[in-house]
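Figure 2 data, in text form.
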Amino acid sequence: MMKKKEKSAIRFFRLVARIWIISMPAAIILAILLAINKISLETAGLLFAGVLIFTSILTTSVFKELENFIAYLKNLAQGLDIEPPRFKKGIFSSFRLADTFLSVKKIWSNQTLSDTTILENLPDPMIMLDTEGEIVFMNQNAKNRFGKDLLKQNMDQLFQDKKIQKAIGDILGEQAQTEWFEWDHDLNTFQVRIDRLPALTRNGAIAVITMNDITPFKKFRKQQVEFFANASHELKTPLSIISGLVETLQGPAKEDKEAQEKFLGIMSEQTEKMTGLVQNLLKLARNQALPGGNHKELIDMEALINKVALDLKNKANQHQKKISVSADKNLPKLLGSRAELGHVFQNLIDNAIKYGEPHSTVGIHIQKADLLKQECLKIDVHNQGNPIRGKDLDRLFERFYRVDSVETKHVEGTGLGLSIVQQIVHEHNGRVNVLSSKREGTTFSVYLPVE
């Protein structure tokens, strides 16, 4: 470190050099005037002395302010946010230069605050590391997910996988500029990117880690694979049966009229099953491709459900059941798709008929209710039958999922009906719940907001 006396001596010699350099043009002019006998030596000496005195006063004032300004800039460059020096106003001062710089600094500071606010409120977690791998910054999302206690901790406290630690080590060691990897944390999967910054930030960060939660995407991809596998399986079974029967009809049963009638009946049933499956698949695809549809029809839900109940009356009689519809008075109408909501309650009432006990009543009740503090209609579809087990309740609305029990073995279905029901209800901004017990039976409750 340089001593104060040495610094003072250097400043003094700099000042003298500046005074001589600034005075040099005046000295040359006086020397020329002296050489051509325009002024005397004494006059030239007095004039040059005056120039030196004036230049010394001006230079001392201006360059002292410039020295202070340079020292202030050096402190800023080192990350020290100190008070700026005070400058005199005047034609020969550095005030305008300093004032301009401070205005620019204020703009930079405001921009930095804005950038910090943006980083703090990013929807994805973001973490910054210093050269030692210590976490020096976490935005709010990262704090909420991983805890505030990780600040000032080494990144190994969060990333305990050796491969991930190596990737981060390569970034910090300048062996790589960018690294990508997937990271499983609790029940979530993140796509993580780590980048080395071109220079240290004010908080000492040299690397930034950004995370994108890809859990929903991976879940969707898994469901998509399962969907196609289940759809292929559901179509393969009736096709195999029909194919086998066709071969039999073309061969051993070619002249057997009784067998032909029996096999044609089976083929008709399997064809009907495939047709229902394909129609449901097309409906699911259509609803996903065109969500919302025509939801601008004004619907009287009591009238709609009475019509559905009437359409299913014959089927209920075949299953030795009755359908009862009741409704509160003065129910409001709602906006939606009459065809889609009709499909919802046709499916639910049809299921209640198929799964209910013989000689029982399928009860439908319509009433006013609240859904998330919004006025809505609640439609309950109830049947008295064997209860749905808890493990089945959790998966009841999954595509192709069917309750596997002795009581339901005889019931035909594709496993897509309730999935379509849930999709349509959600498109109407509603909700569908199910409660089931041996004592109370099973009730599907559909909540539809009233516009």
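Caption note: DSSP finds twelve helices and twelve strands in the chain.
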